[in-house]
Amino acid sequence: MKKYCIILLIILTLNGCQTNNINKSTSDVINQKVDSLLNIMTLDEKIGQMNQYNGFWDVTGPSPKNGDAKYKYENLKKGLVGSMLNMRGVRDITAVQKIAVEETRLGIPLIIGNDVIHGYKTLSPIPLAEAASWDIDEIENSARIAALEASAAGTNWTFAPMIDISRDARWGRVMEGAGEDPYLGSLIAAARVRGFQGDDLSKHYTIAATAKHFAAYGFSESGRDYNTVDISRNTLYNVVFPPFISALDAGARTFMNSFNELDGIPATANSFLQRDILKEEWNFDGFVVSDWGSISEMIAHGYVKNGVDATELAVEAGSDMDMESHLYIKNLKGLVESKKVDIKLIDDAVSRILRVKFELGLFDDPYRYLDADREKEVMHHPNNHKAVLEMAKKSIVLLKNENQLLPLKKENQTIALIGALANDDNSPLGNWRTNSDNNTAITVLEGMKAYPKNKLIYRKGADVNLNDGGVVKFHEKVKINENDKSGFNSAKNVARNADIVVMVLGEDGFQSGEGRSRTKIDLPGVQQELLEEVYKVNKNIVLVLMNGRPLNINWADKNIPSIVEAWQLGTQTGNAIAQVLYGDYNPSGKLPMTFPRSVGQIPIYYNYKNTGRPGPKNEVFWTHYNDEVNTPLYPFGYGLSYTTFEYSNIAIDNKILKKNNSINVSVELKNTGKFKGKEVVQLYIKDRYASITRPVRELKGFEMIELNPGESKTVSFEISESLLRFYSANEVWESEPGIFDIFIGTDSNASLQENFKLIRKF
Ligand code: BGC
After folding, report:
1. Nearest Cα to Cα of residue 678 among 184, 133, 187, 141
2. What span, in angstroms and rounded, lies between the C-alpha atoms of 427 and 425?
3. pLDDT tens-place string over residues 43-77
4. Mean pLDDT, to the nearest integer, of 738-748?
5. Phi then psi for 213, rounded to 5 degrees?
6. Does the Cβ of 458 fall within 6 Å of ligand 1?
């Protein structure tokens, strides 16, 4: 503790009157403290702050399993480490923090980062699933629960939210984002940042957020992870940037750059992205962390010859912290001493990092997040489970429900439950569960047992083939003989005598995620065959899908009466699915990503451009395929309920919109079915003509409305000029006068229509 006191004393003395109450400081005060500290740091110590290591700590010290542990440990003791990731739990983090605080010359605390993506121990649904709830408050709450648990286990900083827009279901990481739409994505980005950071970063239960990956990582060619990105400025500004701007406005304190290149320059060395846009134009005063090894990967990109050049270009471009390339610590000093890198760049990067550490309250008390009693108390707290269950129910999307097969009757039914995923307590956790424990999800089988008045018979039928479409190299659970159909007969026998068959099919949790792109997005292995075989003996099938991306389910859509999209719903999966199937929660989710009819349609998204040949003028020469229609299987925004809703009477209060005014458009929504239910009423706007071509329509608002059977409500949206802005041919964010069409309805095919005119003269 001695060193820590000394450094604190120095800072406080240099600032004269400041108290140790850093969490109440204004940013000016923090800036002064940062400057004071910077003044007494050696070049080595400064570079150390820019160095982040992956965890190397065992209970008793540096891990003997890890070859470079000794080297990292020595650097930690010398004050050459600013941050660590993948360190978990109060005991281990206290051990490393103690070294940083008590054994180094200045005692600067570490900032501990972790991938807290959708929960820490208690896992909520994967982010794509959460996005399907369209429930911004619930999503914020889910991030808050994640922060509560993560901070109690010593984490100060999460590498989330991932806010990469993607239009490609082949890309494995779509599971980690909010889907294809910049408007919905922006609201969710801000909600997640607020959830993680709260309104005071210095509180012991909040953590710093990371807006990642900056930028355009979701546009990797052909959906192959880490692949080249080649997109227009138009797409970059109008599609990719909005969630980042929104995260920044919500206060995101760090950004992570991305593995991809943009315009031939790796994002890590991209000054346009990191300096011109992020730090100058957007005025971001937090810090940028590289992605894992992305500084050294610039050699493989063919952008630099060696690590020294990689270091120079990365730091010049504004990558402030080196995650696991080990290049800054190796090369930066030489580069500064030889005057190749200006010390001002180092000072700027270090100031940014220190600022966030101050804001987190780490200088105030470096052990603030390290309370073993709190850790025990908070982890898996019943309230956390309650919250993730709510989130999980809201994330489910009802895709089809013919003959009101759902909700299931609660008694006197024989239900055949089929599919390996129905009895899987691991897969529903998704692939980002590094902080949590394997095999901790409630299975569908367990969830359905809570309805004991029916007879429930389970058969596996077939495994999910982990080797089909995304080889799971790192996952110990790779099974053999996964094309085994020996379970088919037993499954069919049970199905034949059942009133209803519930089949849980889809992807393993490790078939999506980083490095897990697929060219086929259908049901892996023999699951499709199993579905068709069971269908031969009983047509009353409810298909429950578990997956981390939109799947290709054309056959099921044609033949299976009820289809429920259940994604990977985290710890409470089984309870959430059972409660939805039995109607204790009426599904309200809407797809955040278009479901294609075939992989050949990808990229497919609702806010496409019309082109010069949109409609069939003749049989051949218009924008279409010869072997498939253009429309998706399920559009963006789509999702049913056990009740039905009717839209009518669209009305607009003014056909002219002037700059500082707003107009209102309203619609009447009626619950015409038999159940109480929630509907997400969606507003889309089309800018008819502009200086650059505009999408056929864009989501610009939505409201979640709950109605009793027979009840109606007028739902209205305010439209102001700012809602109509885009990055125009003038290279500014502006609206352009002209006519705009409005569409309101249940999904992105909304057909109730109005229009108005935006005028320039006010
Ligand atoms: C991912 C990041 C992640 C980092 C640290 C990288 O491979 O792209 O999103 O935060 O690893 O785990």
Report:
1. 133
2. 6
3. 999 999 999 999 998 877 888 877 889 999 999 99
4. 98
5. -110, 130
6. no
**Where do the CATH 2.60.40.10 domains begin and end in the chain?**
645-758
Tell me how far the alpha carbon of residue 176 lies from the centroid of ligand 1, in angstroms.
11
- Candidates 468, 473, 478; CA nearest to 518 is 468
Report the distance separating Cα 722 and Cα 699, nearest Å.
Answer: 14
C-alpha span between 258 and 229 (Å, rounded)? 11
* 707-735 per-position pLDDT tens digit: 999 999 999 999 999 999 999 999 999 99
Residue identifier of the C-alpha nearest atom 8 of ligand 1: 291
Residue carrying the six token digits 């898996």: 380
Tell whether the torsion through CA atoms of 408, 409, 411 and 414 is positive or negative: negative
List the strands of the sheet with 254-257, edge to edge. 210-214, 254-257, 287-289
Would you say how long the chain is, in residues?
762
Is there an atom of ligand 1 within 6 Å of 291 CB? yes
CATH code at 645-758: 2.60.40.10
* CA separation for the pair 698, 686 (Å, rounded): 6
Position 263: which residue type? Answer: D
Residues 396-442 pLDDT 10s = 999 999 999 999 999 999 999 999 999 999 999 999 999 999 999 99
Distance (Å) from CA 17 to ligand 1 centroid = 41
pLDDT tens per residue, range 524-567: 999 999 999 999 999 999 999 999 999 999 999 999 999 999 99
State which ligand 1 atom lies nearest to the alpha carbon of 160.
Answer: 10
pLDDT of residue 137: 98
Instruction: Name the CATH topology of 388-592.
Output: Rossmann fold (3.40.50)
CA of 605 to the centre of ligand 1 (A): 26
Where in the chain is CATH 3.40.50.1700?
388-592
Reduce the secondary structure of 554-613 to three states and give it as a string: HHHHHHCCEEEECCCCHHHHHHHHHHHHCCCCCCCCCCCCCECCCHHHCCCCCCCCCCCC
